[in-house]
From TrEMBL:
Signal sequence residues: none
The name this protein goes by in its record: GNAT family N-acetyltransferase
Gene Ontology terms for molecular function: acyltransferase activity, transferring groups other than amino-acyl groups
Domain N-acetyltransferase per the UniProt entry, residue ranges: 11-143
Source lineage: Bacteria, Pseudomonadati, Bacteroidota, Sphingobacteriia, Sphingobacteriales
């Protein structure tokens, strides 16, 4: 499926943060995602303000979201990717990842990174693979506190 197919069906992807339905995206991430349960609203807002965000919309309704944390020169971390359950299965996730990887500010990067528990098949289609030399990678992980 390509851009024309989705555009003809009334879908659009935008990087305009003013279009983001912050309440809907926050609710999905903090209440329904496995990776961001307990996310603080202020932390969420800062993350949106300081990332390159992508929204999927139809009739001004937010159907999906993704965030890229990047220096726009060497590195990008793809995160918070979702499509609402009622809109899955028609290729919107693939279209979103294609759109993100083609974004002009994200060309020529040395490394892309992401973490997923269940979407390996999606990302492998676009060249993502398990981390080479994982023993070189380190992290500080502080999970959100779920109330």
């Amino acid at each position: 499926m390509n851009d024309a197919y989705f555009l003809d069906k009334g879908y659009q992807i935008s990087t305009d943060n003013n279009l983001i339905d912050r309440d809907a995206v926050y609710d999905y991430l903090a209440s329904h995602s496995y990776w961001a349960k307990g996310l603080n609203k202020d932390v969420f807002n800062r993350s949106v303000d300081n990332s390159l965000c992508f929204g999927i919309y139809k009739d001004s309704n937010q159907l999906g979201f993704a965030r890229v944390v990047t220096d726009k020169a060497t590195f990008a971390y793809l995160c918070d990717v979702f499509v609402l359950p009622a809109h899955r299965g028609i290729g919107l996730s693939k279209w979103l990842v294609q759109f993100i990887l083609a974004h002009p500010d994200l060309q020529g990067l040395r490394r892309w990174s992401l973490a997923t528990a269940d979407a390996h098949g999606l990302y492998k289609q676009f060249g993502f693979s398990e981390i080479n030399n994982p023993e070189r990678w380190m992290q500080i992980f502080t999970p959100y506190k779920v109330n």
